[in-house]
Amino acid sequence: MTTPPTPIRVVVADDHLVVRTGFAALLDSQPEFTIVDTATNGADAVRVCREASPDVVLMDIRMPEMDGIEATRQLLGDAPDGADVPRVLILTTFDLDEYVYDALRAGASGFLLKDATAERLFDAVRVVAAGKALLDPGVTRRLISEFTKLPAGTPAAKPASSILDTLTARETEVLLLVADGMSNGEIAARLHVTEETVKSHVSRTLTKLGLRDRTQAVITAYETGLVVPGLRRTD
């Protein structure tokens, strides 16, 4: 007899009762998810997550006492090495909310619109729980547009040489294409290799740079100066 998979443990953090209880009820209606707790603000979310150790947190951005960005930063950025931390899925009202970029920098794995369908919600939690980023290439391109609003030649926040030296020439090339918003399939076509080869390059790049997902890779490419805001490559 096959043992059923362990349910994905979820915490819902939102200061609006209807949103909080609505998302919790939808997820709890499916056997593959278990709501371990809810939170009404960021500080409460941090406390609950440290006590309950969920797999995924649905995190609102605008909450009293502590917002979702700071809560994400405390859960992920301040966690000791090797700590079992949850994946954070940001809840937002608008497509690419003005604060979503800051939340992604804090370590969130993606974002979900609050008016998403039930199936979209279920799929989003599954994707994030599996360790993947919930940002398709189109969304990544919109994220990139936020960088390109910066003046051309904006200096890098971190020196590329010290951070990216561990990458091979091919891994650096793949990282550049990821930062251009290309999907694995598009990169494979550009480089005349298989999609599995691209996935392998991306995986090794994330491991070498200590990154959670390709969204963090895009941010790193810009912040190290590998890609310069406002300038386009002509290859």
List the helices and strands and how they pair.
Layout: E1 8-13, H1 17-28, E2 33-39, H2 42-52, E3 56-60, H3 68-77, E4 87-92, H4 100-105, E5 110-113, H5 118-129, H6 137-148, H7 160-164, H8 169-179, H9 184-191, H10 195-209, H11 214-223
Parallel strand pairs: 1-2, 1-3, 3-4, 4-5
What is the gist of this entry?
This protein is an alpha/beta fold and 235 residues long. The protein has helices at residues 17-28, 42-52, 68-77, 100-105, 118-129, 137-148, 160-164, 169-179, 184-191, 195-209, 214-223; strands spanning 8-13, 33-39, 56-60, 87-92, 110-113. Strand 4 (87-92), helix 4 and strand 5 form a beta-alpha-beta unit.
Structure, explained:
By secondary structure, the chain is α/β, with parallel strands linked by helices. The protein is globular and about 50 Å long. About 3% of the residues have low confidence.
Distance between the termini: 55 Å
Shape: globular
Question: Helix coverage percent of residues?
Answer: 40-55%
Q: Work out the helix count.
A: 11
The sequence of SSEs as H and E is EHEHEHEHEHHHHHHH
Summed over residues and divided by their number, the pLDDT gives a mean of: 82
β content, as a range? 5-15%
Strand order of the largest sheet: 2-1-3-4-5
According to DSSP, the number of beta strands is: 5
Which structural class fits the helix and strand makeup? Answer: alpha/beta
Major pleated sheet: 5 strands, parallel
Segments where pLDDT lies below 50 for 5+ residues? Answer: 152-157
